[in-house]
Amino acid sequence: MRFMMMVKTAEKSGPPPKELMEAMDKLAEESIKSGEMIESGGLGPTAGGSRVRLAGGKITVTDGPFTEAKEVFGGYAVFELKSKEEAIERTRRFMELHHKHWPGWEGETEIRQLFTAPQHAAKA
Amino acid sequence: MTPADTHRTIDAVWRIESPRIIAGIARIVRDIGVAEELAQDALVAALEQWPASGIPDNPGAWLTAAAKHRAIDHLRRNKLLERKHQELRYAHDDHQKAPDYDTAIDDEFGDDLLRLVFTACHPVLSSEARVALTLRLLGGLTTAEIARAYLVPEATVAQRIVRAKRTLSENQVPFEVPRGEELASRLSSVLEVIYLIFNEGYTATAGSDWTRPALCEDALRLGRILAELVPKDPEVHGIVALMEIQVSRSRARVSASGEPILILDQKRALWDQLLIRRGLAALERAEKLGGSPGPYALQAAIAACHARARVPEETDWERIAALYVELARLLPSPIVDLNRAVAVAMAFGPQAGLAIVDQIALEPSLQTYHLLPSVRGDLLLKLGRFAEAREQFERAASLTGNTRERQFLLERAEHARAASRSPNPGL
Q1: Contact in structure between B115 and B175 (CB atoms under 8 Å)
Q2: Cβ–Cβ under 8 Å, residues B210 and B258
Q3: Which residues of B touch A (CB under 8 A)?
Q4: Per-residue pLDDT tens over the stretch B11-50
Q5: What is the pTM of this model?
Q6: Which end of chain A has fewer CB atoms surrounding its CB within 10 Å, N or C?
């Protein structure tokens, strides 16, 4: 099963402390070595982003920054795992590193399954 | 957290941590069967305690400590304590303190997990036993899961694993990474196990489903682990590249009703670009390591030719044909020649391909192989030799054991028959 984990936090949180970066590098390395993390990436500031919205039959483009959003996506990772529980466990470890190395930081990681198998195989 | 939630979390923690725990304990007790039992005991303790006490902050460390504790008790019971004293101290110290000869001598292989891989894939075991043991100890699969994947009773798998452990112990197979000349042959035995698991998932040998994707994922994960453990071996990256690219087509290679779709007819938009990118990167790693490519890297290079083509017409068939020549040199086989014939026909026309097929047509091992007449029929059809083509498709249909494939071949035979009657046979 493939999962995407997307981490959200307030954009004004600023750059993460060095200790956290080091701990996250180590965690990423472990997840690559265990053959489970197959992709990851960080997102740039919303100031450089845009939103393209279709509503009421009209497409509108809004440039960032998205100041009205309380929390915005900052990064993602893609894992191949046996179960959602493993995804939660992996994510819990990721969040614990934030707790340990970035006092006061708050945020949320959303876990979503990515469909990969053909439909008939997924049902089997 | 409800007890059921706790159990599911423990399952997840176990799957994440068990290979490393078993490998670490095996270094202490020098027996992977005993190591697994001790690790299982630690798991049982977790199942008993965690629902009441809550899940510890670092569940992996908890399980490791519990298993080590049991390993020490085990050694004490066996009065081996004196002899193992050194190793135990080493296991408890940080690795810096005591000189570790294994890692000192063989830096890149100084890893318990790698020892576990080589032991589980030891040639003293049958290939079925290697597969079961590898899935169980390294893949973290339960006996029931292995049984389900291989469509055999759970007792059969359990028995296979028990016997495998006994065989290792009776033959006093050392828990170590082979060195020197032995390393290459042992590594190819490991790759063979991974590829056996992969193929079992990719083309089900029994059952109605064309693919059993879970085994492919397990094999791919094992390959990715191995690629990090043995980063300097080009064939390890070759096998990973091959598997990544093959899996990238999972969604495209079977129709909604379960029929196989040939590569040139697949919807390429369904190919998984993430896996293709990973596959091409793994192939590049293999190629950068230099030397002449081995069989897995060559097959990966062939798969990559398809993966790089955005539309079928872009496929570099000349390169594929050349890669098959190299592959045939390493693994002389009429099946490789048959594939080469297909590539040559695509690159240089059906007549050139047919010449190769005719050369191997009398090969005894191919007499019951349905793809020989199937390919031959295809080339004859393209040459407008409809009556012969029909005969070949019918023969191919009579040889295949797969119902869906038989249906497909009979349709092609019918198509050839209709074409032979058409006033405009070239169209």
Answers
A1: yes
A2: yes
A3: 8-9, 11-13, 15-16, 57, 140, 209, 211-213, 217, 220-225, 228-229, 250-251, 254, 256-258, 272, 274-275, 278
A4: 889 988 899 899 999 988 889 999 999 999 999 999 999 9
A5: 0.85
A6: C
